[in-house]
Every structure is written in structure tokens, then in C-alpha cells.
Amino acid sequence: MPGILLENMDLVTMDPELGVIEDGYLAIEAGRIVALGKRDELKPGDYAGYERISSPKWGKRFIALPGFIQTHVHTSQALGRGLADDVDLITWTRKRIWPYEAALTEDDVYVSALMSIAEMLKSGTTTFCEASGVNPDAIAGAIIDSGMRGMVCLSTMDLPGEIPPEARMTTEEAIERNVGVVEKWQGKHDRVGACFNILNLFLSSEELWRTLSALAREKNVFLQTHLAESLDEVAFIREKSGKTPVQYLESLGALGPHLLAAHVVHVNDADLDLLEERDVKVLHCPGAGLRIAGIAKIPEMLDRGIVVSLGTNSPPCNNRMSMLDEMWLAGIMHKAVEHNPQVVPAASVLEMATVNGAKTLGMDRVVGTLAVGKKADVTIMNFNQLCTTPTHDLFSTLVYQANNDVVHTVIVDGEILLKDGKLTTINEDWLIAEAERRARAIVKRANIKF
Ligand SMILES: [Zn+2]
How far does residue 74's CA lie from ligand 1's centre (Å)? Predict the structure, then answer.
């Protein structure tokens, strides 16, 4: 693979020492960043033979920044987008999404994951973590084929409830299958990782929590879950244990730096103390929060130093899968709740989308900033668009103005996956037709009624 030279660009490195390098260059070789700096440090003939990506001769310079990292995405649910709008949560889950998931074939999951990856790439995302995969092998296949970087997991429930028979597991099976996914995918492919999953607190046993938490610590593996997501969950756990959801997990030894907890909306001060002390990672999903879960206390979490990252969550409950939309929402929603336009400023949003995402997934030595030696996961923005004009401040323009139109080029592991706004490894026309066809067939097969 030839090297790539980005030149005549402003580099938003997100590295505290490097900061923003105006009119800079960045060289990529064998999948890694090998050099970066001011463009005038380049000598004629440097990096000869490299593929060059340059800003236009007229207009504003391109912006290069670390690719965004989404820590909570349900890629198996992309073909279910629009299936469960404006319905209550019970209908959403039991009558629409679980029957949809139960009807998915392995090929459906592959196409659904590819849809998710295509939309992530088009909004500048280069790494994601699956939130509750139906078929981790199919998702891993889509990651490998597309050139994306991602972590897979298996949607796991081990208690009886109104769930489709296909989704039910005994506790023993749940443990065995989670270990199987991690053994199969963690560390076996350069761009694919794996973590454990327990879908939620409603349908999981104490034994499952204790065992997977202990294994997560022992094997240095993350555990994805949904935590303190609804008032129903709070009432259910209060009835079951007399505790809050966070304190309940503490009593099971489940809180720790390995725990990736999505939403975390309904928490009190004692819960926040525990999350902070145990270094639990919070996965903030603004679109899904506004629509279903509620609004988490993100300003307070950030003040406490809790690592908060972002995810677009689930296509049937967002329904937009653009990281830039999610960043915009993260930047504005807390200002309304707190009655304070200064909370969660643009720079914090950008940190959540890059360095915090990398810290959350234990990948901060590998991705999350532009620095020599890091993997070449780079997103290039073209601000010569109506939405980003004028550009007074890079961070503000990126968070409050930019939409997917500005995403010009996306590089993952040194490979260009989006070039001039077009996907290079995914046939978009084929994908749209295939996803539409499969989505309709699934609804028919699952007998989902609107
Ligand atoms: Zn979720």
C-alpha cells in the first residue's frame, strides 16, 4: 500500500501538546502516522510517490482530525429503522424490535452492519463498539470487508421474560457464548475486537453479572450494558434489591473500569460517587436519550472526571446514524436542561467523540488523537460548504454547524474508505437496494404489524 500525504490542512490533533497545527502536513505509512507538522517544514521531494490529498487552491483549508469513535451502536438493528416510531417502550421492544431481531438471518445481520458502517463512515466515524449484536460473526465480517475498526459482542439475556425463544439462553450458555465470542475475535484481527455483553438489568441473573464481571477483570475484556436507562428499571431493581441500579451492580462486584454503561440517566449523587470511584465508562447517546431514555447528567459527570463518550445507539430509536448529528445534540441539549449555555462546550463534545471514545475502549494508545506512531484513523473535513460558512472557530463550526456534507475523506488503518464523500469499499447503490429488500422481507417474515 503506498503512503499517503495530507498537506496544506489544519490538523486538529486532539493531542494536548500538539493542539491545532495550522497549514500542516501528515504522513501515513503502513497504516500508521509516521510524521506530522507545519507544511513549511516539508522539503521538495519529501514523500515522493505518496498519494497526496491537498486542500483546494481556493477557499478554506481542509481540517484533518482523529476519526470519531462511537462506543454504543446497535448495528444489527439498521434494517429495523422506522419500525417502532412513536410507540411506547413495551411495544417498541416486544412487538417490534425483538420479533425483528429474531427473524434476522446471518446475511441480514451482515447487510445491517454494513449499512451502519456506511453511515458511520459518511459522518467521519472510524471505530465503533457494538451495543448488542445478534450475530457477532456477521458483524465482524462486515468490519473486515469494509475496512472499518470495531468491537463486536453478543446480545445476552439469561432470565425468562417476554423475549423470543431464539434470544433466550441459560446462564451457563450465556457465559459460554460470551467467552466464545471474545476468544474468537479479541486480538485475532488487527481491526476487530470483542467484549462481553449483558443487555440490561431486567433480564439478567446475579450469577451472570458476577461471573462475567470477574471474567472481564481476569481477561482484561470490556462488558457492554444498558444501565439506569428507564424509571421502570429503577422501580424493578428497587423492588428486587432495595437498591438503585448502580448500587445493585456495585453489590454484585460489577462496577469497574471494564464496565461500558450506556445511558446512565437515572442516578443520584451516591450513584455518581460510585461511578466516579469505580471508573465506570458512560456511553452517552443524545438522540436516543431525547427520544426514549431521558437526559443523563453529563455536565456533572464531566466535572467529576467520569469518562463520557458518544454513540448513535440504535437505528430504530434515534433514527439518525450521523455522529455529527449526535455531537450537535450533545452540545446543545444539556444547555437547555441546566439553563446554562456554557455547559458541555464544543471542545468537550469533540473530546467525547475522539479521545474519550478511545479511552473508553482501551484504545487510547492506538487511536483517538493525531500523533506519530498512532494508527492512521483520520477524518478530513471540507468546510467550504454553506453549513460551515463562515468559520470563525474550528471547534464551534464542527460541533454546531457541520453536517455529513463536510466529510470529505475518511482513512482507517491507512486505507481510504471514503474519498471525496464517496465510499470506496462499499457499493452504496447495491447496499441501499439490498437493505430495502431485506428489511421488507424481515417485516413480512416476523409478521410485524403497524
Ligand atoms: Zn442501546
Answer: 6
Distance (Å, whole) CA 94 – CA 217: 33
Find the 72 Cα to ligand 1 centroid distance in Å.
6
User: Within 10 Å of residue 183's Cβ, how many Cβ atoms?
Assistant: 12
ipTM tops the 0.90 cut: yes
As to burial, measured by CB atoms within 10 angstroms (0-12 exposed, 13-18 middle, 19+ buried), residue 96 is: buried
Which residues are close to ligand 1, an ion, with C-beta < 5 A? 131, 262, 313
The pLDDT value recorded for residue 167 is 77
The CA-based diameter of the chain, rounded to the nearest angstrom, is 71
Distance 349 CA to ligand 1 centre (A): 20
Task: Give all domains of the chain, ordered by start, each with its CATH number.
Answer: 4-66+370-423 (2.30.40.10), 68-360 (3.20.20.140)
Distance in angstroms (rounded) separating the CA atoms of residues 1 and 15: 27
Query: In angstroms, what is the span from residue 226 Cα to ligand 1's centroid?
Result: 6
What are the pLDDT digits (tens) for 236-250?
Answer: 999 999 999 999 999
What spacing in Å lies between the alpha carbon of 382 and ligand 1's midpoint? 31
User: Which residue from 325, 297, 305 is spatially nearest to 399, judged by alpha carbons?
Assistant: 325
Q: How far is the CA of 4 from the centre of ligand 1 (A)?
A: 36
Separation of CA 43 and ligand 1 centre (Å)? 49
| 8 Å CB contact between 71 and 382 | no
pLDDT, tens digit (0-9, with 9 covering 90-100), for 254-293: 999 999 999 999 999 999 999 999 999 999 999 999 988 8
Residue 251 alpha carbon to ligand 1 centre in Å? 23
CB 129 within 8 A of CB 224: yes
Look at phi and psi of residue 309 and say left if phi exceeds 0, alpha if psi is from -120 to 50, else beta. Answer: beta
